[in-house]
Amino acid sequence: MAIRVLPFYAIVLRPLVSQDLNQPIWRMLLKNAVNGLFDGEIMAFPSMELPSLRTIAGLLKAGGYNGPEHGDHADFVWFERGEGKMPNWLEKVELRFFDSDRVSAAWKMVNSEVYSLVDQNDQASAPTKGYQVDWPPFIGRIDK
Q1: Quick count: other Cβ atoms within 10 Å of Cβ 117?
Q2: Would you say the pTM of this structure is higher than 0.70?
Q3: 118, β-bridge pairs
Q4: Residues 41-75, buried b or exposed e (16+ Cβ, 10 A)?
Q5: Is residue 124's pLDDT more than 90?
Q6: Are 25 and 100 in contact (CB under 8 A)?
Q7: In the predicted model, what is the mean pLDDT of residues 92-110?
Q8: Could you tell me which of 48, 58, 61, 68 has the C-alpha nearest to residue 22?
Q9: With the CA atoms of 129, 131, 134 and 136 taken in that order, what torsion angle do they form, in degrees rounded to the nearest 10?
Q10: According to the 3-state scheme, what is the secondary structure of 34-61?
Q11: What is the pLDDT of residue 144?
Q12: What's the pLDDT tens digit per position in 37-87?
């Protein structure tokens, strides 16, 4: 899957890492996976204000995750209005919707075989690559 780029502040996390994580962080992540933006590979924590994301970043670091200061070895990164320093495991891709001329963007793991799009504004539907939306490598519409 992929997560549609969020318009304000966000932390994007790769939750599955090799280092040990503590129990409280797993509880927080499981709650966010059910109620939030999780595509099975990456997780996004959106916010309209920076202080709440600082709290989340502190919890992630206390739980065992590497912060953005670790560069490509970071387990989570900050974004403001969709822009931020991209580690080598994450990419921002262009989204093209078949039903309109709108163009947007999403975050996804590099070399991932993702097919559905998670959208904070429309969590009920999950557009699928090739059917409602496309992203690189572009495959075009596969249903007629």
Answers
A1: 24
A2: yes
A3: 3
A4: bbbbbbbeeeeebeebbeebeebebbbeeeeeebb
A5: no
A6: no
A7: 88
A8: 61
A9: 50
A10: HHCEECCCCEEEEECCHHHHHHHHHHHH
A11: 61
A12: 888 899 999 888 888 899 999 999 999 999 999 999 999 999 988 788 899
Q: Decide: 127 and 135 in contact? Cβ < 8 Å.
A: no
Instruction: Give the Cα separation of 136 and 101 in Å (integer).
Output: 17
- Whose tokens are 């200061």? That residue is 69
Q: How many CB atoms lie within 10 A of CB 124?
A: 5
* HEC profile of 75-104: CEEEEECCECCCCCCEEEEEEEECCCCCEE
Task: Name the residue type at position 143.
Answer: D
- Scanning the structure block, which residue is given the tokens 């059917």? 131
**pLDDT tens, 19-49?**
999 999 999 898 877 666 888 899 999 888 8
